[in-house]
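Dear Dr. V.,

Thank you for agreeing to look over these. As mentioned in my earlier message, I'm a first-year student in the group and I'm still getting used to reading structure tokens, so any feedback on how I've presented them would be very welcome. I ran two proteins. I've put each sequence directly above its structure. The first is here:
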Amino acid sequence: MDELLPEHLVQFLSSVVTGTLDEEKCEKTQRLVYSITQDVCRAATNSKWKLPKHILLCATLRHLYRSKQLTTILSRLGHSETYDFSMELETAMAKAFDEMSTNLTPQIITGEGNTVFHSEWDNLNRITTNVHGSNVVNSAGGIMIQEVKESHVSTKKRTLPLYDRSSKMRSLKITPPETLPDLAFKRVGPKFPKNANFTPPAENQVSYDASMLQYNTHLLSRWKSTIDFYTPINQPITDNAVVYELLKRSGAATEEVGQPYTINTFDLGVGSSSGRHGKFHTAMNYMGRHTGRKCLGAGYAEILIEAGLANSGCLKNILSGKSYAKALFSLKAVTEALERLLFNVFLEEEKPDIPYEILFNLIHSCTSESLNSTLKDPTLLKLIGDYLQYQDKVRRGHLGKTGMFWLSMMDHARLVFMMDFAVKTNNFELFHHCNGAMADLFFAYDGHNYARYLTWGALAAVDKTMEETFMRFAKTSGGLLGLFNNCGAYQKWCRTTSARAQLYEITLEMCGMIDDPEMPKAGKHRELEPAQIKKSELAVQSVISAINGFTNPWRILDKSRLKDFFDRLKKLRLKTMDYCSKRVKLTSAQGKLFVYKEQSNLAFQLLVKSQIMEMPINLEELMRYPLSPVPHALGSPDGYFAKTNKATILHHLLQDRDEDVPYPNDALFIQDGNALFHMMSNLPPTFGGICMQLLDQMVAKHHFVFSTDCYQPDSIKAQERLRRGSSEKRIIDGPNTRRPYDFKSFLGNELNKKQLCDLLLRVWGSNEAASRIEKSMKAVVCVDGRSYDLTSTNGKVQTSEIYELRSNQEETDSRIVLYLHQAVKWGYKSSVVRTPDTDILMILYHASRINLSIYLDHGSGKHRTLINVTELSESLGPDYCSTLLGFYVFTGEDCTSAFKGKGKVNPLKKLEKTPKLHKAFRQLGADWMVTDELQEEMESFTCIMYGQARMTSVDTVRVKMMRKMVGADKVLDSKSKVDLERLPPPKVCLIPHVQRANYRVAFYKRADKAIIESPKPHDPGMGWEKTGEEEVLEPVWAIGPILPPSLVEVLAQRAESEEHAALDKVTDYANNNLSVGEVDGEYEHEDEELEMEEIELEDLFSDDEDDE
């Protein structure tokens, strides 16, 4: 630069900028001085001097933006040449390239310096619009890529000819080429020569093994290829004539370079004509077979979702490989995570020597030189060799079949990575090995059309390379519309792209932007950018956490549970919704046993049938039976309790109390832990974080008891949990186990909640929680019926059991009374109970005589309120509170039935007007057995609930209400508007309901005792029974027959006729289709036998001619 500029002017401007003449100029100052000097010279000579700054800026603006307005603005300010000059320069370069060679540009080296030269061809489509509408115009473009020997210095420098500016030619006069003639040929499949050897060369495997050590090395090295462009052809690339012309051009260019063989890469659409596929399509479809087919159902998709690498919207495209970038990134993250987990197992089992010092030096100085020196260390090489041998052991089944599968998954992924590595480094042997190894998976998963193109000539990803070179340079902000519409401009743009790119690079170097680490992609690979490193590491850690949250495939202890792929699967006995209907077995007078199943309006059909028989059944007699397996007033057809809104009674009791209750100071805070599990939000990603978040909420109260439920197998609550259903069981290995995405569903399994409670006790008792425990004055946690006092001293947590609180009570609802009594012993004057459940309020009313001020923290959000239970119970009186507990359970709660359509508030108002029955409700739960007198009182109140206060028999009330529904002087028939749910339950059903309510209240009234001696719920007189082979605990719905004997005979006759029809059907099937049902020499009639046992009784009137 110094020889182009006046020396004294440079010195003068340097002294102006730096303030001194002798000071040595830094790079920034020198760059600024040269820039100003060139501007002064151009201005002084009236733009006659063409200096580097102005020429390069002008060419760069033309190259990047093609904006005449932007170039003119900078030119008039003296920073750039004019837009016309850039057009003249570009035209001169295009003309010079035409005269130099018909195939190559000056930057392509010929002769000994060439390592690999190959050509890539792809379609370049453009959309045009005219009066007839839009249309797509196709053309074919190509690029030439060359790898040069590292130490080669070209001696055959080719220079471009010089032209006089007097012509000021701004456009290239090119006559559009004639259309290539059609080329027709007969397509012939590949033919293998005689004595062909299909075994891959041994050097390919050697290259693959060596490349595994170099795989991460190329990121630290600057592999730089020379890229130039072929002259486009304005015809569709899929035409045979165009393909033939492209092959001719590639061959001519390769011959000019001096390479003995020609390498071409084509797009997928051209591959069928030319016999070549690029790396991009091969890798994309291979990943689709790998992740979308082989790994289907193995957990790969679940890992991506759990790790946050994919969502439901893009998961399909990632698994199929269509979203190439996301699929490759996800595959890299999962493979790296599995590699780290496997390496940890290798270190634990083999205990090899690790050169820590060398590895630490590499971490602190991560360069290609330090990496190469590290890979020469014998200890590290031995470590790598031992690890590769350990992988071979895993492939042979050392870690079980699951480990074999996931290691094969890693091997498939490595083939994709090695193919990419081979393309970047032009490693023919490695590329050949990857193509041959990929054929097996393609053939295994219906990829025959892809496997046939696995030739090893296509050493580039044509689509990605074209997009990142030609399209990247050509598609400027101004678009390509103007270029496409002008043939000369289009050809000129393509021919000068490489030259303009070189000028652009020189401009960056002049500005000091090539080696500046602050500039994005300043000579570095994208994978080495700090943001990309952080993103990749975060993805790998997320995958590791997701795998540990499921099952680590390298740490499966019980390998015997894994089944062989070809093992026979047993026939599934799927249960449909029809299976849920309640069934009972009835016996006819002749001793015939059949199944009576709850079905739609079957009870009403039986009711009508009883009135149209030859000898109609008396209605008074008929109403003594429920007529269905489950009484309509108390349960649902599937055999579960009818439910009601329990919170209405709370609003009724608090409707006149709107004043705010102040929060008591130094009160013992008692938290229903299971309720808090469901109320949590903004959950941490791991279970350990969830436990710490719970502890933070508790520590804020300073004095707290955190209590969780127990889970006893034969309890009434177990039956209720069975009714609600159960979610999938998960395994919590430790605090670092990641929580599932659907935490609410996770809490639907009692084993999951038990694991969470055990982990919570372990985390709170660890030293990591010491700083939090120190903030609390009293910290008690109750898990599985045992209570522990947590204290913290000197950074350590001591856990000691409180034996007075060891209890066999299953629910926190009742155990709260036990905690309140203990709070009095600890010296507390008040206590706050936090729960959203209404049951606890009724229990606290009954237990309000404790010498303690009791508060209930109820609701959430803006509906959260603090209730002074002690004050409220004193205003109601102890007798009313005791009565209220019995009434609340009798009219329906979690483990007792509600009366359909009755609710709680209206029956409570009726009870308040009937003082004589208050004593009966206070007697509920006093003893485990229900007396006859108490049973009669409960029956009388049931009559009152149904509006018949003068009656004392529910069967009589049923008769009266039935006649009212049918209508006066009308006969019951199929058109009668009868709703059996509006009738009270018959006495045979009311008796076990009272027994269940009594059993439940008895537990509540004994909640102040740690150990409650009680009968089993399925003992006689408790209202429960065990049924079926699995002995499931179910409510007793009736203590007598559910149908009168005459109706039983009607059903028995119907069942017998259907049984004969089913038996005939099975016999015909066995005679005609014996071979279909034969399995291992035995004929199985399991399905037919099941149908004969469960007779459908949907239509009782099909044989009656007089049915209306």
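The second protein is here, in the same arrangement:
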Amino acid sequence: MESSLDTDGIMLPQDIENLFFKASGLRGCLLDECPIPNSVRECKIFEEDKIECIMRLGEEFSGVPFQSLETLLLRELPNLIGLFKWEAVVHLPPGTFTCLKELCIERCGKIKKLFPQSHMDKLLEIVAGIFPGFVALLCRNLEENTLSLQRKIRSLESRKDDVHENLQNAACHSGKKRKREVEGWMTDVENIIKDFETLEQGVQQSSRFYHVFKRQKLAEQLERMTEQVTGLFAQGEFPSGHFLEVDESIDRLSLIPQLTGQAFQQNVDDIWTSLMDVNVVSIGIYGMGGVGKTTLARHVHDKLLKESTFSGHVYWVTVSHEFSISKLQSDIAELLNLNITCENDEGRRAAKLFREFQKTERFVLILDDVWKRIDVEKIGIPSKRDGCKLVITSRSEEVCRSMCCKKIIKVNTLSEQEALNLFLKTLDRDEQSVEVEEICKKMVNRCDGLPLALITLAGSMRSVIDIHEWRDALEGLKESCLGRADMEDEVLPILLYSYHRLRDTRLQNCFLYCSLYPEDSYFSRDGLIGHYISEELIERRSSRQAEIDQGHAILNQLVRACLLESDSRMRLKMHDLIREMAIRLTKEKPRYMVKAGLHLKELPEEQEWTEDLDKVSLMRNSIEEISPGTSPKCPSLSTLILSSNPLRSIPDCFFTHMCGLRTLNLNGTDIESLPNSISDLEKLNALLLDGCRKLKSVPSLEKLKVLKHLDLSRTHLEEIPRGMESLTNLKRLSLLNSTFNMIPGTLYRLTHLQQLELPYYFEVPIEEVKALKQLEVLRCRLNSVRDLHDLNRLINSRQSDKQFLSYNIKLSSLEFKDPLPFNFSIGKYLIFGEKSLMEYSLDADGIMLPQDIENLFFIASGLRGCLLDECPIPNSVRECKIYEEDKIQCIMRLEEEFSWVPFQSLESLVLRDLPNLIGLFKWEAVVPLPPGTFSCLKELTIYGCGKIKKLFPQSLVHNFHNLRSLIVMNCEQMEEIIEEADITLPMLKGLLLHNLSQLKSICKGKMIWNNIETICLGGIKNIKELPLYLPFLNRQLSPPPRLRTIKIDERDKEWWESLEWPHHNANNVLQRLVQYRPSESFGFLPGTSHLMSRFHKLSNF
């Protein structure tokens, strides 16, 4: 500032490479002030308030300025008018800026045009000379591609006209209601046709040479529009039709088909009217077992979720025959996202629930399957408060009256025609002979209109084709129902008949085994099949995979026969009447004693332990001790289940007379030591002690020669049980989260092992594992990448019939005794643990992974740079989680054309606590993303990634067209989610954005998300406008068709109300969907699975 420049300006060293100016007093023209040597590769100019331009073009240059410059950064130059200042029409010297790779201009208030129009011809001639082929690259085939898109648009218009004609014809004749997705599709097609007309005009008006940059933008728009048109054309097929046959919103949890008919609809209307009546606070629905009370209540529940009256505050709890106040309180608290587990006093728990309910203006609570009066005030339900609605279902009218229900509705059996319709619908036959129709009618008459009986009987007849078999079935049904007068007694023989139609004893035994679970409880397929295998209820097969397949086949048969129910999470359940029938069956042979989930504090009386007992289930009770001297005489007992009891000890004589015991299940008990009499149970096939955290002592297992399944996971044993090496028939060995060491060489003797699960602290002897030729399931820790490569060779060398069914491998040289923050199920997992990659020197091929791996996790492993460079990901990977990696910068580096399609099968990607991640992609050359990359991605979670600024760079969001869930949290530099205008994410159901302090934009145009169900927002106060596309339905502005809830951080209520909207009425339209939630309800819990479950609870997915 104080220097008086001579005519030559400032003299700089001729070898200088990096030149920075900051508030130095630079003025006028950079080159006048400071002739720049051609050695300079980087130039940054900050906070100079007098500089006007970089180059002044007034006369021909004698040299070539800036010919080596690679980076030019201009920031906060308030008087800069442009890069160039023309004082005469002169050429820019060829070679100027020829090496420039990065140009950044920020907060330069006076610059209007980067490349002024009046000089663009000259400038582009120079650019074309400097970058030969550059213009051709950007403008290639623009007109040809426009014509191609025009043809696609015409085809799309034709399909739209066909659909429109179909809709018009149906409207005139059938009166059916068109699907919302059809209406949305029609609107999308009309919009894209208009957009194309504008684009086509732009192409026609961009033929001049200086339009090259405009043509580049048009080419990008053309590519996006072509993809959209292709997608719309495919969507327009509507394979399921254009119209609603039934209410699409119903997501039934029960197996029972949706009931219809005049009586059913009348009941729905009565309940709905009562719910809308301010004078009716409680509604009772009663009727006999199996008549459809739960189905009716479920229909109302799902309909309420679609309506805005209760803003999504609709809660469902199954009570069941045996219930406790504490259990009911816990179930309700879970629905409310309220933690009361640390509170044991029922009164204080009730007070917390009461306060939580008070936060909600209006809500509906449905209590299903209530058997006796419940004092709702003791539970914590504010039943007398305005806006509270209580609905109960019960078999007893007296229960409804005792709970002071203001409206009581009886569910009657079906009419004769309705019963026949339900039977035929369940039978699922296109047509049948007249004689079969008559037999069907007679069978329906035997069911007396009871839906459960109709469905179960029809399910058992699905596979019957021959007329003789139909006649025989009718005669058998008549005999089974003789002498039955009472309706509920009469339905049981019908259910019993369906059971006998299973014919196969194996199927029947597998069905009866399900009655060992408590009433109304769900059980997993995998767990149940494991028990089938241990109990030898299914045929022995050559591999565990084959046995599992057989188990699934059996369960599928039971579901198809309507004897088991299956929900959307693949869990199974028995209807309480069917379970009652199964328990009646087991009063004889095989003889069961089932007292599961009854809150028993003591064992059943001695006289109940009969000598012919085959199975006993006492799971999920409160039994703390077995009295000394207790020794039931049950020589035929094969299965004893005492799991999930606070049982501390078992007397030594207890097993003395149980010499036939084959399965002993003590999972989740407080047992401290097993009695010595265990050693004499020589027929024992399965010994299950998972979760016995106080267990310190187990007697010798040497005599248990036929033992096939031993589970010592999560116990406190300090040494391996004696006689372990003698268990040569062992097939399943689980030692997860245990603390003892394996004796070297033990595994060599266990040659029949199919499943081996070892604690992570224990370094697996890889040579011993290689010797286990029957091994199909492996869970263990490896010490080094070299061990991983050995295991990889083992996995890849297996023959097709001996492939691994599942493996869960953690790679780490450190002992790891605590559970990982992930929930694992059956699958093929690889976890790179703490520092596992730090000492590993990557070769050119990176880490070699098993080619069938499905789930890949990194946690503080030392991953660095680019994920794909470090670890080429096989296309078998469906889930990838990366936690606490402080050196990783990106997922993919785009440097050259890919010869393959990465991440084409990936469904879930979670990135958490990655402080140096700059984005999913890092460009080092202008190359396209391979088509199909991320095309299957459904869930994307970004948490605590401080450097990432833009999530989806321009034109790449279309690769994520299958995305269903997007979560972005705690990314302090995130400025923009989608760098694109008018975005359609057709499958997106849930969006959660929280604690993004720098976020300025979600996307530049409209967010067209027709499937969005839940939006959760908080801590994004720099967002001034939410460009959510709101369609017009019946000429009224409406929310997106499936949007159910908008959750807003309660601290941001003022921000939400101040948002700007494209339409003046948008806020009013959406406000009825808004719920204000505490900030902590958006919080990140340990482990991403908890985050996802929290999000799903927020969104009621």
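From my reading of the second output: The chain has a mean pLDDT of 82. The longest helix spans residues 142-173. Does that match how you would interpret it?

Kind regards,
E.
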